[in-house]
């Protein structure tokens, strides 16, 4: 393999791969998941099948969430772009989600919907005996119902949009999936800047695609950790073609993949890119 294909894009200087408190949080949800799975063993031995299914599905949801978040953090680290899930068809660049992130997300949503469904069906009726107060037995099913609705919607979106690609860029527009807003499409002609969001809460890997006048709040936030090429390459990809409209015809053929491979997304005329290249 050539040195060009091993090129690793540097992250923008404002990014952090993770906040310090995320690691204790990940340890907590992983431990909670293991605890629930152990509870499922006891429920199985006592033939409490509803409770066993609930503990297994909720425990797996917690463990899978931990794995999923760790994979997202890993995507933020500098590493060579993974191009096996990148393609150019019908005049557009399509970048699918990194396979492990996509699979853990779908499995997490599946397990979560099973847990919520079992809770909604068995707790109000008293079929599943959990140590809950009368008020909790009344209100917790509503929270479980909201989680179920979200899980089903996001699961359907994930399954149906996965073949399309997490990030799609054509010579005229950019389209990407957002967690709560579905798929967002922005025309290049409307984009005024591609940068790192300002403020301490936004320092974890994120991309702000701005539209309209400065301070108008128009635009959308792109999570660059999902596309298989990695967070840093995703940031420089979107920023490069925003800054170079004369080169956007590359997005319709294999030249864009060659540029990603060779490190050509780092523009020496871009002050932010020059700053990032000093860390290489």
Question: What can you see in these coordinates?
Answer:
This protein is α+β, with helices and mostly antiparallel strands. 47% of the residues lie in helices and 13% in strands. The protein has 2 domains: 16-88 and 98-161; 167-277, no CATH class. The protein has helices at residues 22-45, 49-76, 99-122, 134-161, 231-243, 255-262, 271-277; strands at 86-89, 92-95, 167-169, 173-178, 182-187, 191-195, 207-211, 219-222. The strands form 2 sheets. Strands 1-2-3-4-5 form a 5-stranded antiparallel sheet. Strands 6-7-8 form a 3-stranded antiparallel sheet, with helices on one face. Strand 7 and strand 8 (219-222) form a beta hairpin. The chain is elongated. The two termini are 20 Å apart. Keywords: Membrane, Transmembrane, Transmembrane helix. It comes from Nocardia lasii. The chain crosses the membrane at residues 20-40, 52-73, 106-126, 138-156.
Number of domains: 2
Q: Which structural class do the helices and strands define?
A: alpha+beta
Order of helices and strands: HHEEHHEEEEEEHHH
Report the sheet with the most strands, covering strand number, pairing sense and barrel closure: 5 strands, antiparallel
Mean pLDDT: 87
Q: Which strand-content bin applies to the residues?
A: 5-15%
How many β-strands, per DSSP? 8
Spans of at least 5 consecutive residues with low confidence: 1-5
**Which strand order do you get reading across the main beta sheet?**
1-2-3-4-5
Distance between the termini: 20 Å
Q: What's the total helix number?
A: 7
User: Which word captures the global form?
Assistant: elongated
Gyration radius, rounded: 22 Å
Q: Oligomeric state of the chains? A: single chain
Fraction of residues in helices?
A: 40-55%
